[in-house]
Design a protein that fits this description.
Main location: membrane
Membrane topology: Multi-pass membrane protein
Order of helices and strands: HHHHHHHHHHHHHHH
Oligomer: single chain
InterPro entries: ABC_BtuC-like, ABC_transptr_permease_BtuC
Keywords: Cell membrane, Membrane, Transmembrane, Transmembrane helix, Transport
Protein name: Iron ABC transporter permease
């Protein structure tokens, strides 16, 4: 019997909380601003809030505090925020597309593929500019994704959440090993250690001028296709029953994932678990409608990365702890919790 759109949507239970979603977005934005101000204020040199405000509004290169803020701390925290948004949104898209609650760019081979591309850049083209590094990171992430989905679909049952996760673990191990092998052979271990551990130190305005528009365009496209993603998260048969062009939607959304993951890895390295944790937390708060999940994931992914970077800078000052290790301290227990619960959604 033919099912109407209304019946299909009701059967699959779309939980949308517009009022809560709006409140969460506003709260998240306020938290993001506060976390950035906090991150700029703390460190080896303590800086007052009014000093931060004056440096942003009325920058004076003659003042040492202004130089620290505008040359080091502000671009670093903005980089952390934009990368956190990219990882979180790409994770949310992957979880919706694959219906796999364990999906994350760092767990499904994308970050490892981008890291392998970075190793190749350092080995064969040491003078490459940041734009070249980013483009090659896109390509590396795409290779990782093709290997994971190709390997996961080889068996009779096709792609299932557990097969995708296992294939992602295998491909990530393979690509990471290849990257480390290249680093050892070309004596690049020290240069590549930054991207392996993950970190935003050294982020500058020239890099932000490239990565910010790329990530913003990716997030905007994701928001534009968020309704289609919500329907696709019901399953491909349901999406087709509602008249959706599933192949076109998947191609667009997968391209967005590759752009976001590749851009993020090119700036901070292979950081996992941001794209795993944030969408689950947001889904618990705002429901299963991706029109709210995507923008809220972007905001809270930014907050998570800024706070993680702040903790990494201050926990063992004046030395820095890799931000990837800080995120993993939270992400690994979260992943084990989801795995133990059988991948069931938190909502």
């Amino acid at each position: 019997m033919f099912k109407t759109k209304t019946k299909l949507i009701k059967e699959n239970k779309v939980y949308s909380r517009p009022a809560v979603g709006t409140a969460i977005l506003l709260l998240g934005f306020a938290l993001l601003l506060l976390s950035i101000v906090l991150a700029i204020s703390v460190g080896a040199a303590k800086i007052q809030f009014l000093t931060v405000w004056n440096a942003v509004i009325n920058y004076d290169p003659a003042r040492e505090a202004d130089r620290i803020i505008m040359s080091l701390r502000l671009p670093r925290e903005l980089g952390a925020a934009i990368v956190g948004a990219a990882f979180a949104v790409s994770g949310a898209i992957m979880q919706g597309m694959t219906r796999n609650p364990l999906a994350d760019p760092g767990l499904l081979g994308l970050n490892a593929g981008a890291s392998l591309a970075l190793a190749c850049v350092f080995a064969f083209n040491t003078g490459a500019n940041y734009l070249t590094v980013m483009i090659l990171s896109f390509i590396g992430a795409g290779i990782g994704a093709m290997l994971v989905f190709g390997l996961g679909s080889m068996s009779r049952g096709g792609l299932t959440p557990i097969r995708i996760t296992l294939a992602g673990a295998a491909v990530s191990a393979l690509l990471s090993s290849l990257g480390e092998g290249i680093a050892l052979y070309f004596k690049l271990s020290q240069d590549l250690a930054f991207w392996t551990a993950g970190g935003v130190s050294g982020t500058n305005w020239d890099q932000l001028k490239i990565i910010v528009p790329v990530v913003l365009v990716g997030i905007i496209v994701a928001v534009m296709f968020s309704r289609q993603l919500t329907i696709l998260s019901f399953g491909e048969e349901v999406a087709r029953g509602l008249g959706q062009r599933t192949l076109f939607t998947k191609i667009v959304l997968m391209t967005v994932v590759l752009i976001l993951a590749g851009a993020a890895v090119s700036l901070v390295g292979a950081i996992a678990f941001v794209g795993l944790m944030v969408p689950h937390i947001v889904r618990f708060l705002v429901g299963t409608d991706y029109r709210w999940i995507i923008p809220c994931s972007a905001i809270f992914g930014s907050v998570l990365m800024v706070l993680a970077d702040t903790f990494a800078r201050t926990v063992n000052a004046p030395y820095e702890t890799p931000v990837g290790a800080v995120v993993a301290m939270i992400g690994v227990p979260f992943f084990l919790y989801l795995a133990r619960k059988g991948g069931r959604k938190l909502s």
